[in-house]
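Example for tutorial group B:
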């Protein structure tokens, strides 16, 4: 009797050994909860961490050009860079190489674009864990990143 072969072959996923990790932050406490994961992976695998913050223009201001703001674009970007640098020092072990990046635009689009440009192996992002109407109204950057990313995404669910 001939041995029956299965039409389903066992597929083995590639081992996740990220050389480059992108972790996004909006500087909230929820976003900070993703940083220990990035630190742990980076230590374990000798990965470079790209700590990214996206400055999103407020939607109600998108058509207004001549309204004076408290901080100029340049000042906002410099403050974000300074805050990212401080966060990198506070949250990552000295052995982990942390690069910072400030981008402007829609958060999920800029996170995905940065990940592609940098050819990262893993994106780590937090989510508020909203459901129902709150989720519908607020949208989910993490969900959009998961849908469109070219690489694996680790989503750290946090409380409201």
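The residue assignment follows.
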């Amino acid at each position: 009797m001939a041995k029956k072969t299965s039409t389903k072959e066992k597929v083995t996923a590639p081992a996740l050994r990220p050389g480059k990790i992108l972790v996004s932050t909006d500087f909230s406490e929820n976003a900070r909860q993703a940083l220990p994961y990035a630190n742990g992976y980076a230590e374990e695998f000798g990965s470079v961490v790209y700590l990214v913050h996206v400055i999103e223009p407020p939607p109600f201001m998108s058509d207004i050009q001549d309204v004076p703001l408290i901080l100029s674009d340049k000042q906002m970007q410099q403050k974000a860079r300074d805050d990212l640098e401080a966060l990198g020092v506070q949250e990552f072990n000295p052995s982990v190489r942390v690069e910072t990046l400030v981008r402007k635009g829609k958060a999920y689009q800029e996170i995905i674009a940065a990940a592609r440009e940098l050819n990262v192996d893993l994106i780590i992002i937090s989510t508020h864990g909203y459901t129902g109407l709150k989720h519908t109204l607020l949208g989910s950057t993490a969900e959009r990143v998961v849908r469109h990313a070219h690489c694996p995404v680790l989503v750290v669910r946090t409380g409201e």
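Strands lie at 20-24, 48-55, 97-104, 122-127, 153-157. Compare this with the pattern of hydrophobic and polar residues in the output above.
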